[in-house]
Model the fold of this input.
Amino acid sequence: MSVDTDSELREAIVRHEWNQFQHTNNEGGRAACQGNWPVFHQMRLAQFLTWPHDLLASYAADLDAADAVGRNLVTEKYGRMMASTAPAEFHTNIEPFIPQLSADRIAQQEQVIKQQVAWAADFRARYPKLGQAMRVLTTDEDTLEATSFETYLRGELGTYSDATFSLYKAMIGERASSNPPRNITEETLLHTVKLGGFASLEEAETQQAA
Done:
């Protein structure tokens, strides 16, 4: 993946993920969201707009490396979520076929997840209408039809290489230790609503409430 700027790199990553998403098999047939490029682009770009260059470059390399060995990181992400939403199927049909994470890696991921769930809860408390439009928050709220923010994040982090996860963890740590702390959920949602045509979270919240 050869790109010149962070903007181009982000767009290339979103397109690469979209291409992998098109080859993700959904139980019961193709999911409607697999045909909705504008929403996919908005949601994924908003996330990557919060990332520094070194993390973007590392994740782009992960996607290229996955292609080279026949892995699909988007398929794997959704598969890992099924550890919560469909555990029996996960343990039988998915877990044996995806890379296993070490106990240390899992523990480090859980530290990151705890911080991000707290940030998401804080955001939802301050922007309740926007919060209502988000996923349910925690894994104990998962159902077959609804996957929580926590479970989705756990699935996604599990697909990152050790190098990418290390950079991601450092980014979250830097935001948490900033004065004041920088809530990455708030930053991501601000990018999301701006990409959707709103000037601010407050404007988007008001329109959501209307």
About this structure: The first helix runs from residue 6 to 21. The CA atoms of residues 137 and 204 lie 20 Å apart.
